């Protein structure tokens, strides 16, 4: 059976990296939104693999950004997704329903999480 796919918004950030790691650990594939191609390399480095990750360039603040992603999914150019993990998106004024997580801790990609009290993205990945 083909694995389910998670669309991850903000995938190159501290929380996004945790979301990608969590999805892969749960045996899901990832469709990762990045703003620039170069960011994809940053994502692969922090996650530690390219396997199971499809990257798509999109700026979600542009009117056509997400629309193009959905059109490419419909056209079969990108994998269909069953879940969305959005980090940092403000969706309060839309009709999209999300389970939101409010953090009272600081998460950073493993390479940067050296200070006391800062959680590693690979540990926070358990939440996903
Ligand atoms: N880290 C924490 O512990 C923590 C705690 C509480 C709350 N939060 C909140 O959680 C959110 C994410 O935090 P973070 O630490 O992961 O932030 P971050 O490391 O700065 O990452 C932000 C992510 O959002 C992407 N992004 C920004 N604007 C975008 C746009 N217009 N279109 C597409 N992607 C866009 C960035 O992509 P690029 O790589 O292209 O820049 C990056 O992947 C923030 O709202 C933050 O305030 C974080």
Automatic annotation (TrEMBL):
Q: A Pfam family for this UniProt protein?
A: NmrA
Q: What is this protein called?
A: NmrA-like domain-containing protein
Q: Which SUPFAM superfamilies match?
A: NAD(P)-binding Rossmann-fold domains (SSF51735)
Does this entry carry the keyword Kinase? no
Domain annotation NmrA-like: ranges: 3-74
Q: Membrane-spanning residues where?
A: 6-26
Q: Which domain of life is it from?
A: Eukaryota
What is the protein's species of origin?
Aureobasidium vineae
Q: Which Gene3D superfamilies match?
A: NAD(P)-binding Rossmann-like Domain
- What keywords is this UniProt entry annotated with? Membrane, Transmembrane, Transmembrane helix
């Amino acid at each position: 059976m083909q694995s389910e796919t998670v669309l991850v918004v903000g995938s190159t950030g501290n929380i996004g990296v945790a979301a990608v790691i969590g999805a892969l650990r749960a045996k899901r594939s990832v469709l990762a939104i990045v703003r620039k191609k170069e960011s994809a390399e940053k994502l692969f480095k922090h996650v530690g693999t390219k396997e199971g990750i499809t990257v798509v360039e999109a700026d979600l603040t542009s009117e056509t950004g997400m629309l193009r992603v959905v059109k490419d999914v419909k056209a079969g150019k990108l994998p269909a997704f069953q879940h969305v993990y959005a980090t940092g998106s403000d969706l309060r004024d839309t009709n999209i329903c999300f389970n939101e997580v409010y953090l009272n801790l600081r998460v950073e990609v493993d390479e940067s999480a050296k200070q006391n009290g800062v959680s590693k993205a690979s540990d926070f990945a358990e939440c996903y």
